[in-house]
Design a protein that fits this description.
alpha/beta, TIM Barrel, three-stranded parallel β-sheet, about 10% strand, binds zinc ion
Length: about 400
């Protein structure tokens, strides 16, 4: 079997994929085979022990870890602490009410839903800046967590909550303009309002895009009711980051924390399937969507998406000339796949110009050393720099 060279274009490579799907095992260097299973405990809660986790997730490699911080992390969660006080004071009007928690941590409930407890790491800044420095992350997008998007709220309250959230995110950016840019939280339960919240965030607050969950209260994006939002994102020419959340079958997957291991990548894949097969990217060909956790299972099963397309025309809404894999032109991916050889596979599948660094800070299944995985790739420096910061600078319009 012949390994596909690093200099082929994404288009050429995908053509080649029809014949062979090969990843060279000879391209890997140090750091590629770390087993993270033993150093993570699973679970969806942010770790308050970020630094110790970082130390536990692999040996330091001086050959790789040299030079100043310069990576841009597009998968980086934050909750503005000032919102906790806002919820305490005005929670009833917001529909986001404080709730009791067993250990005294701040907890709240959206529209009477299951209480959501905040761990300190999600709302903390100084420690994350230190970890960013240690792991050579120069900048990060401040992203909401899907637990905090408030999709259970009605449209009006959802809009108020997201605007409030975005104003608070803006406080972080103002305080640390060289370290953070923000992605808007938007009320996808009311797409026209989501469009106006996104527009306000981008035009008035200088946000660089929006964050959406992989489904909205169990509803996926095959319906045209979401079109006002996609249209606005296209018009504003901003990146959308899609994060899995509110997983179907969550109760079944609760054991062993399989919701995070299997459910998150699954729901990103499923959501993308709805988008592609319903013709979303045909209606909005300039839409730019970033999938997290390496794109879930899509990069690995792109052939399966194509195969189904060629087998049946029933219910197919996308032009016959377009296979699902052709929509890679609309898609971007973070590199949160833990292993260098998997990052390399992703690079070969989707193209160097479509991958960015993602750490999932501060969650336990995050990889603070995501930038190191890029440095460890066996590819030209220009390609590493594109993944580390070049693509993010272009997509997020960072000078
Ligand atoms: Zn995440």
């Amino acid at each position: 079997m012949k390994a596909i060279g690093v200099n082929v274009s994404r288009r050429d490579f995908l053509k080649g994929m029809g014949e062979t799907a090969i990843v060279s095992s000879g391209v890997l260097i140090s750091g590629c085979a770390q087993n993270f299973a033993s150093s993570t405990t699973g679970g969806r809660n942010p770790s308050s022990e970020g630094a110790s986790f970082a130390q536990a997730t692999g040996a330091q490699d001086d050959k790789i870890r040299k030079g100043p911080a310069r990576a841009i992390d597009v998968h980086h969660h934050y909750f503005p602490p000032e919102l906790m006080e806002e919820i305490r004071r005005h929670g009833k009007a917001l529909g986001v009410e404080p709730a009791a928690s067993a250990d005294g941590s701040f907890s709240c409930s959206f529209a009477g839903g299951r209480p959501r407890t905040f761990e300190p790491a999600l709302a903390e800044v100084e420690k994350r800046l230190k970890i960013m420095d240690e792991e050579r992350i120069l900048m990060a997008t401040a992203d909401t967590a899907t637990s905090d998007v408030g999709y259970r709220l009605d449209g009006q309250r959802g809009e108020a909550w997201c605007n409030l959230f975005n104003d608070a995110l803006q406080n972080l950016v103002k305080k640390h303009p060289k370290r953070f840019v923000a992605m808007a939280s938007v009320p996808m339960q009311d797409p026209p309002r989501a469009a106006s919240v996104l527009e306000r965030a981008v035009r008035d607050l200088n946000f660089r895009g929006g964050l959406i969950a992989s489904n909205v209260n169990g509803k996926y994006y095959e319906s045209k009711e979401f079109d006002p939002f996609w249209k606005k994102a296209e018009e504003l020419d901003v990146l959308l980051i899609m994060h899995p959340g509110d997983l179907p079958g969550a109760d079944t997957m609760r054991q062993f924390n399989l919701g995070t291991v299997c459910g998150n990548p699954f729901d990103s894949t499923l959501s993308l399937g709805f988008m592609i097969y319903s013709g979303l990217f045909d209606r909005f060909p300039r839409l730019k969507l970033c999938l997290l956790h390496g794109g879930g299972f899509f990069p690995y099963h792109m052939g399966r998406f194509d195969q189904r397309f060629t087998m049946t025309a029933e219910g197919r809404k996308i032009p016959a000339a377009s296979r699902p894999s052709s929509y890679l032109r609309n898609l971007y991916f973070d590199n949160l796949v833990y292993r260098v050889e998997t990052v390399d596979y992703l690079r070969r599948m989707v193209g160097t110009d479509h991958i960015m660094v993602g750490t999932d800070y501060p969650y336990e299944l995050g990889d603070w050393k995501a930038a190191e995985k890029v440095e460890a790739l066996d590819c030209p420096r220009a390609e590493k720099e594109a993944i580390l910061f070049g693509n993010a600078k272009r997509l997020l319009k960072i000078d």
